[in-house]
Design brief:
Layout lengths: L1 H62 L4 E3 L3 H4 L2 E3 L2 E11 L2 E10 L8 E8 L5 E9 L7 E8 L8 E4 L1
Antiparallel strand pairs: 1-3, 2-3, 3-4, 4-7, 5-6, 5-8
């Protein structure tokens, strides 16, 4: 009889141990789900917080007043030809501390102008160099026109003219 009792207890104990193991697994799974939920919530909150900061900066930027000035020299804006390239619709503007040089450039030669660095030399009325700007000129096919642009933080609005080397 002891064996039978021992056998009954043994089966009941095994069921109890098995139930405890299952309960522990369920508890661990719930804890894992809870931790994952907290991490996901923290990430979502963090992203929204960052987006809110970005949106705040965008609104601040819209409040900044943009100031634009233009070079008034007629000589500067005159059509010019350098290195087989014709420069037209030339402008020199300063916007919020940056000077922008732009022109429509046409290759007036019979050969392709290969991409290379060019030096724009800004001059005063006495043809003295005020500053220079080195930038890349894209390749231009014969008779092709491109929009050429360059920018610098140097204030060049008082330039009278320019040359390209």
């Amino acid at each position: 009889m002891k064996k039978a009792k021992h056998g009954k207890h043994s089966i009941e104990e095994e069921k109890s141990k098995s139930n405890r193991k299952i309960n522990k697994k369920i508890i661990y799974a719930l804890i894992a789900i809870l931790v994952v939920g907290i991490v996901v919530a923290a990430i979502i909150f963090g992203v929204n917080r960052i987006e809110g900061i970005k949106l705040g900066n965008i609104f601040e930027q819209k409040e900044v007043q943009i100031t634009t000035e233009e070079n008034k020299s007629e000589e500067f804006a005159k059509e010019k030809e350098f290195l087989g390239l014709k420069f037209q619709n030339i402008s020199l503007k300063r916007e919020n501390g940056i000077t922008f040089f732009s022109a429509d450039v046409t290759n007036v030669t019979e050969t392709k102008f290969e991409e290379k660095d060019v030096k724009i030399i800004f001059q005063n009325e006495s043809a003295e160099q005020l500053a220079s700007l080195v930038t890349k000129m894209k390749s231009i096919e014969p008779n092709e026109t491109i929009k050429f642009e360059a920018a610098t933080s140097v204030d060049l609005l008082n330039s009278y003219t320019f040359v390209i080397e």
